[in-house]
UniProtKB/TrEMBL annotation:
Alphabetized GO MF terms: 4-alpha-glucanotransferase activity
Catalytic activity: Transfers a segment of a (1->4)-alpha-D-glucan to a new position in an acceptor, which may be glucose or a (1->4)-alpha-D-glucan
Keyword Transferase in record: yes
Disordered, as annotated region: 639-661
Entry-linked Pfam families: Glyco_hydro_77
Gene3D superfamilies per record: Glycosidases
Entry protein name: 4-alpha-glucanotransferase
EC number(s) given by UniProt: 2.4.1.25
Keyword annotations: Carbohydrate metabolism, Glycosyltransferase, Transferase
Enzyme superclass (EC): transferase
Family: Belongs to the disproportionating enzyme family.
Length: 661
């Protein structure tokens, strides 16, 4: 007897089983499979429903002359067979112009196309998306003759210049970048700066739980008052931020109508179009009804409702404030990148694309979203999370994104890349498959994505924006993923503390991947000093998440690892090994340069650890005169990594930050 639910799952890419962390085959319960199918928008509650839906989808596919997407190399003609005579036309990405048309008997000969996502129509009806991709994404060798560089990873929220501010800012980012450039750094990498929302759930401060990834976090576009404590007080800082935004907007409104600032905002609004307007309306509604639109009164949950239109008409001032804040954030972030480049950095900002937005945020409320809210992204059970992980983030629906021609994904990449020399795609494994947990369920399963098409879109946007792409390829990596991402020009991540040798130490860094960012840690792992002191294990033992035996084992392992270094200063020795690595790009954490033991985030904790609250251990002036930075710059320079132009710059660098105000 045919298992129609399983058949439908196979056809649309929902796994009926998968391999766990230990290689064991995990069978997914039928109820979970049905729940995932329903989250994808398929009307399935029974085997009979599954049979009907599968028949309908298969019929549509069988009637196709060509696949839903055709991937071609930009600048090269291509040919695709057809089974019967058709008339065809090829439209540009914008849909405004027909590039080529004709009649085909056996095959359609597509001319050489510029990079982009174009539309192919057969017999007057849309048939296929034509993804004209470059040979690969932008690589460091396309920008630098001898591609060996280094940079610094830090948290933007912590760049408070010690006690000068209560929260970091885009202005301070430019200041810090310029100071780091003096030591030869070519980039500064920060946490995601997607819009968190001026109204948010009280427990959400993680930059990896944004409201909307196409817009910027206005928490960073004002310089809030000073704070002497070592931790970020978000409640106080965001109250100051909101007041500063109100004051800045009132000052802006008093400018004459023909002022350059008002013309600039008008241009920003025009380019942002309906999407900017929708986001601003959401923010205004959130002030009234709360951060999660799924809990709003029913008429306001629908973007196209009359209630939403009436609300927008009556609250133009609040909506304008949000648009102004986005404009300010965009200008200030652009200035930070300009300052970094003028200071000598060859890449400048290294920005982060979060894997998804929170379920009730602005991005899932958008009219044309390809996201779903009937399931959450997460991870299956493993030794660190025996019950699995639920991230509370909205998954991308593979059916919807293909139907929309990958426009939303391309737009998202373009947005994050526009002021960045390099971006990191968090959990790049999600371009191949993601683990979905249906609403109300504890069990989940994997959903497959059109991986080759998504890689083509990444390459297209990388070349368009001249931004290098790093894929965070850590964890349970599917077979073939790293080979495909490397072929697409996407760099990987080699994290040294995960790369242990048989003697208990670390692999020889001369063996790390060339096309990778080599570092010792991430924001979710111990710092160098914290690793060798087993600080993370000590905290976990104190809060009861591991027992004393486990703590003792971890501490013994770390002490043995320290012995293999053969050096009295493990931080400096690790940095020396990073400098000598085979990888084109090396990243050093600001916390490691200061030999800090605490890490930015301790996964699996909420109130037990000050996640996302640590301030930077250096002020801007500290960095300029820091012996630790001088030694690090010298080490990197000895390995031909440092940007000599940055090191030769006068300390009195040009300040372009006034452009933002």
């Amino acid at each position: 007897m045919t298992d129609w639910v399983a058949e439908l799952c196979r056809f649309v890419g929902v796994a009926s089983d998968y391999r766990g962390f230990d290689g064991q085959l995990i069978q997914v319960a039928p109820d979970t499979q049905v729940a995932v199918l329903r989250a994808m928008g398929l009307d399935v509650t029974s085997e009979a429903d599954a049979r009907v839906v599968l028949h309908r989808i298969r019929t549509v596919e069988e009637q196709r002359q060509l696949p839903q997407e055709l991937i071609v190399t930009a600048g090269q003609p291509a040919k695709f067979p057809v089974s019967r005579t058709v008339s065809w036309s090829l439209e540009t990405e914008s849909g405004e112009k027909v590039v080529e048309s004709g009649e085909a008997v056996q095959s359609i000969a597509i001319p050489a196309l510029p990079i982009g996502i174009h539309r192919l129509c057969l017999n007057g009806e849309f048939t296929s998306w034509v993804l004209a991709r470059p040979l690969r994404a932008l690589n460091l060798s396309d920008l630098i003759a001898e591609p060996r560089i280094w940079g610094v990873l830090t948290a933007l929220y912590g760049l408070t210049d010690k006690t000068a501010a209560s929260l970091g800012s885009y202005h301070s980012l430019g200041e810090y970048a310029a100071a780091m450039a003096m030591h030869g750094a070519d980039f500064v990498g920060i946490n995601p700066i997607h819009a968190m929302g001026q109204v948010r759930p009280d427990d959400v401060v993680s930059p990896y739980s944004p409201s909307h990834r196409e817009f910027l976090n206005t928490w960073y576009c004002t310089e809030t008052g000073s704070a002497s404590c070592d931790l970020i007080n978000y409640r106080a800082a965001l109250q100051e931020n909101a007041a500063a935004l109100d004051d800045g907007f009132e000052e802006f409104l008093r400018l004459p109508d023909g002022a350059p600032e008002k013309r600039s905002l008008a241009g920003f609004r025009a380019s942002g179009g309906a999407r900017l307007r929708d986001f601003a309306v959401f923010e205004a509604l959130a002030f009234r009804f709360g951060s999660d639109w799924r809990k709003w009164p029913t008429p306001y949950q629908d973007r196209d409702s009359g209630a939403v239109a009436a609300f927008a008409h009556d609250h133009e001032q609040e909506i304008a404030l949000v648009e102004w804040g986005q404009w300010q954030s965009d200008v200030q972030l652009a200035n930070a990148q300009t300052r970094a480049i003028k200071a000598g950095m060859r890449l400048g900002l290294y920005l982060d694309l979060a894997v998804g937005p929170r379920l009730g945020g602005a991005e899932t409320w958008s009219k044309d979203t390809a996201l779903v809210t009937g399931a959450t992204l997460g991870a299956p059970p493993d030794p660190l999370g025996p019950s699995g992980q639920s991230w509370g983030l909205a998954p991308l629906c593979p059916i919807r994104i293909r139907k929309q021609g990958y426009a939303g994904f391309a737009r998202l990449l373009r947005t994050v890349m526009r002021h960045a020399g390099m971006i990191r795609i968090d959990h790049v494994l999600g371009l191949m498959r993601s683990y979905w947990i249906p609403e109300g369920s504890e069990e989940g399963t994997y959903v497959r994505y059109p991986f080759d098409a998504l890689l083509a879109v990444v390459a297209i946007e990388s070349v368009r924006t001249k931004s290098i792409v790093i894929g965070e390829d850590l964890g349970l990596v599917p077979s073939g993923l790293r080979e495909k991402t490397e072929a697409a020009g996407i760099y990987g991540l080699d994290v040294l503390q995960y790369m242990r040798s048989e003697d208990g130490g670390f692999v020889d860094t001369s063996k790390t991947r060339k096309k990778a960012v080599c570092s010792f840690a991430t924001h979710d792992t111990p710092t160098i000093a914290g690793f060798f002191a087993a600080e993370d294990a000590r905290v976990r033992a104190e809060i009861g998440s591991i027992d004393r035996t486990c703590f003792a084992n971890v501490r013994a392992d770390r002490q043995a690892a320290a012995q293999t270094l053969g050096a009295s200063q493990p931080v400096q020795e690790i940095h020396r090994r990073l400098a000598r690595s085979n990888s084109e790009i090396v990243a050093v954490q600001l916390d490691d340069i200061a030999e800090r033991k605490d890490q930015q985030n301790l996964p699996g904790t909420v109130d037990e650890f000050p996640n996302w609250r640590l301030k930077a251990p250096f002020s801007v002036s500290d960095i300029k005169t820091s012996d630790a930075f001088v030694c690090l710059g010298t080490e990197m320079s000895a390995q031909s990594r440092s940007n000599q132009n940055g090191m030769e710059k006068d300390n009195d660098l040009q300040d372009c930050s006034h452009v933002a105000h």
